[in-house]
Amino acid sequence: MKKVYVNEDWCLACHLCEYYCAAANSGAENMIKAFANGNKPIPRIRVEEGSGINFAVQCRHCDNPICVKSCITGALSVKDGVISCDESRCVGCYTCVLACPYGCIVTSENSKVISKCDLCMKNNNGDPACVKGCPNKAIVLEER
Amino acid sequence: MALNYFQPLFDVIRDKDRCIKCQACARQCANEVHRYDGDLDKMISNSQQCVDCQRCVCICPTGALKIVDNPNKFRNNSNWSQQTMTEVYKQAETGGVLLSAMGNPKEYPVYWDKILLNASQVTNPPIDPLREPMETKVFLGKKPKDVTFNEDGSINTETTPTLELSTPIMFSAMSYGSISRNAHESLARAATELGIYYNTGEGGLHKDFYQYGANTIVQVASGRFGVFKDYLETGAAIEIKMGQGAKPGIGGHLPGAKILEDVSRTRMIPMGTDAISPAPHHDIYSIEDLRQLVLSLKEATEYKKPVIVKIAAVHNVAAIASGIARSGADIIAIDGYRGGTGAAPTRIRDNVGIPIELALASVDQRLRDEGIRNEVSIVVAGSIRSSSDVVKAIALGADACYIGTAALLALGCHLCRSCQTGKCNWGIATQRPDLVKRLNPNIGYERLVNLVHAWDHEIKEMMGGMGINSVEALRGNRLMLRGIGLNEKELEILGIQHAGQ
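ok -> structure tokens follow
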């Protein structure tokens, strides 16, 4: 299955992936609208940076996902290898946040439920927005 | 601090309705023009430091930025332009020589734009390159004067070494140091894939790039940086750099700040020392001396590699070229006054040298008149901007063209002409690791390959239009050219007729 990978050699820490991700999953028609009126939609990808090494991190879509096992309501599920969250079932217990070894499940002040990368399967973006938006092809969607 | 007389050259315009304060511009600007002010919750621009490299404009996800010329102007004066005045202020403040980068930007005539190409009509019909074979392969080096036969009647095919190019384009000399490792890797990989050559410049060859040796021209310049046996043996050809179009009469200058560990090892000089190449080669004061170096290099590489001598286009270039053709060199490279550089004194870049079009025409004519045109191939450089410039250069007598600026444009350069600062936001003319990684060679080499493929297609289209199916048949075919808006003397030097004749 194709997954999103990051090559730290080419990650510039421009943080654009975060903005493309947040906008794509905000439901707004474009980036300007997504961030209009002081809105701050939450990205599901985060750039880690420091000491000259930068890389973006988002859900690894593990083969044996601890987050899914830890979910108390069955909101997290695996379909065709993609782990996604049914936000109508999430009760915001954050057990998955605690369980995820990569820190890839994000919470926001805007909403009680968690959000996580679902490879842009649920929005109208097509290929993942972070991959399309990366200016240096540091983020790729490929089979490994 | 005393009053600063400078006005910013550019104005950064931010569309507040579009800006989402993502700060990508702030993170990407090495000149520190953009900054996010948390107290004001606003993006702030300091236009004074902007060099108009367009990185922020390209990276902005909402298209909120524009860089425009600063509308603030000094009082109009046809003699004292704002730029001239600013340069006086700058020198009054610093007491230094003005430095610039890339090619001469002044409004001198561009002869390529005053030359028109022919096309066939009715008689000698045009050729469709998509349907019929079309040859853009060229060989650079000495060509035998006549066919000789062995005793058994077979043809004597022993020839001197040549370079085989799939299309008459090569990447100009740009040293590792003046450009980044990733820029070098992009050029090396593209040249290998295209079946052409790139040139190391005078900075030696990084160990990691020896694998591309078959498509590498190694340069020996007056500083002799990084020259040793393995280096000479790795390249497909050796180029002796006598001069450079952007700065004829002076040697290369690489500031110590760019000499980091890898560059220092490759150049074989201590870290942090300025790499100042002497103006002359200290062992060359005549054509005879040049001949000695040409033959020494050939001896060192067992006569297996052609030797190129590169000169800047200057006033008596034809006589110089004639001398070089007799020095044993296989190829002469001529660099016109619009050729680029990573750093040159502004006055020299803008005022020294002559246009490559005129230099090429006079050199080709002189060598033909003297019956030694076959002794050398001619490669021209110094602002070959498009495939039509290539076609016109070949029709004027060139064997191939070097492209430097065009290749850097393919890698993202926006000609802000600030290479000498070492803060290239595109990761090209810099050694700062955080900036170098902005040029991903996987993207860079693909863009270079695309560019040369596109030009190759266009060269074939133009040749086909003229009813010519090989570069060999176009070379020196000045009947395919007509001048427009040129005076008698210019037409005479170019050896072409005026449009309508």
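Chain A has a mean pLDDT of 93.
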